[in-house]
Amino acid sequence: MDWAAFFTLHRGLPREGPGDRDSLDWALGLASPPPDGAICDAGCGPGADIAGLLAHVPEGRVEAVDLHAGFVAQAAARFAGEPRVTVRQGDMGELTGPYDLIWSAGALYFLGVSEGLGRWRAALAPGGAVAFSQACWFTDTPSERARAYWAAEYPQMTGVAGVTAQVRAAGFQVLGQRPVSDAAWEAYFSPMEQRVATLRPGADAALAAVLDEADEEIATWRACRAEYGYLVTVARPA
């Protein structure tokens, strides 16, 4: 991955993956962090979910963590002057807490579901929970196009039953699961499409490759949206 080209495309985009306030509100309703609770946004990207997380802990705080300095800078700028938000660069696999909730939108796969939950268990306060979204098959017979795309992007991808098994293998119980809506995917892709169109004229080879990857991501999902998506899972240590 040419990271300079990647950030040329992604810098300033509102989200780094499909998601929306409706999914977040549903998940936090199940997790029920206390009003004065502490939430970690693990793999926060540009900070798209921080405002929604804050709304569920009106007397609490949000600590947002991401490995990439560019996303940390964007999220920090978004919430400059908000004393209840801390944004820092760091490894989400090394969280210490204690947190009443760890929220991770489309990032837990970097650690693996079972391994990530196992690492995060010690960072949870008593009664704490984890809510995360994860790429997931919604059919047992995906098309060749969908299989080919995800074989390169995330070969370990599994179905709903597989995600559930990974959660249980980490010693957690599933409180609820639901897919991210098609509308959330379109809201994620639309700004990216506009950016691709703006950058395409005059793009060098490295940037053109990144733009091609974005086009393929969008086109594959639109052609195969019934076959896969993001699954939101809320889980608590058993």
Give an overview in words.
GO terms for molecular function: methyltransferase activity. The chain is 43% helix and 23% strand. It has helices at residues 3-10, 21-31, 50-56, 69-78, 113-120, 144-153, 160-169, 182-199, 205-224; strands spanning 38-42, 61-66, 85-89, 99-105, 124-137, 172-179, 228-237. It has a 7-stranded mixed β-sheet with strand order 3-2-1-4-5-7-6, sandwiched between helices. α4 (69-78) links the parallel β2 (61-66) and β3. The mean pLDDT is 95.
- Structural class, from helix and strand content? alpha/beta
What is the CATH class designation?
Alpha Beta
* Shape-level CATH architecture: 3-Layer(aba) Sandwich
What order do the strands of the largest sheet run in, or round the barrel if closed? Answer: 3-2-1-4-5-7-6
CATH superfamily: Vaccinia Virus protein VP39
**Treating each run of at least 4 consecutive H or I residues as one helix, how many helices?**
9
Gyration radius from CA atoms, angstroms = 18 Å
Mean pLDDT equals: 95
Number of strands: 7
Shape: globular
Output the CATH topology. Rossmann fold
Instruction: Tell me the count of domains.
Output: 1
> Main beta sheet: strand number and arrangement?
7 strands, mixed
H/E element order: HHEHEHEEHEHHEHHE
| Share of β-strand residues | 15-25%
Q: Helicity level, as a percent range?
A: 40-55%
User: How far do the termini sit from each other?
Assistant: 39 Å
Low-confidence stretches: none
GO molecular function: methyltransferase activity
Keywords: Methyltransferase, Transferase
Pfam families: Methyltransf_25
Protein name: Trans-aconitate methyltransferase
